[in-house]
Request: fold
Amino acid sequence: MPRLLTTYFGEIDFADASVFEFPHGLPGFETEHAFVFLRQPHTEPLMFMQSLGDPKLCFILLPILVADPQYRVNFDKEDIAALRLPPGRQPRIGEDILCAAILRAADDEQPEPTVNLMAPVVVNLKDKIGMQVIQADSGYSHRQPLFSRQETSPCS
Amino acid sequence: MLVMRRRAGESFMIGERIEIEVLEMTGSRVKLGIVAPEEYVIVRKEARITRDENLTAARKVDSKTIAALLHRLTS
Reply:
């Protein structure tokens, strides 16, 4: 089984079948074409998207329906074709695709963590191909606060 | 902000070398044609915003941050 030394998780073993190809990378990381998704019981509900090309590059993700249980992702024809999904119908989260929001931790610029609901990461679970699908006119925020002011968890 | 009205088929210039033409309007959407020198990178604004968010998000991934997030998510 291939092994990868990562900055945050140390050495990880991964199956070839768990590698997802991102033909165009992600905006800002256009040359990163392969990622693995890491989920561990003790870090649920968070997921991690680790680059195979750069051990230092890792994103924290939250499954989109954890971030927003009402979330509706909308694909146009080009997205469906780029992800090699069956044409003619919207793909189903959890069956055809994995859909997750990139989480931005609190930093000097913003005191609270946010999730990018405007541009979820979507992968075709069957063909192992992924991209960030920009939901241009959806009204979803690229900086949706993760926690409401009452400190309630979005999963409760 | 400069505001100007244009019809389909009309265009406008930015400087000497950038031309933007309104090609078509359907419903609430406008199709634009852009002619610009190769050195200008043209991206949709949402893609630029997403790039900036991705670059920022990737900078702050460490065990302390993850532990703090998990504490709040699961408490």
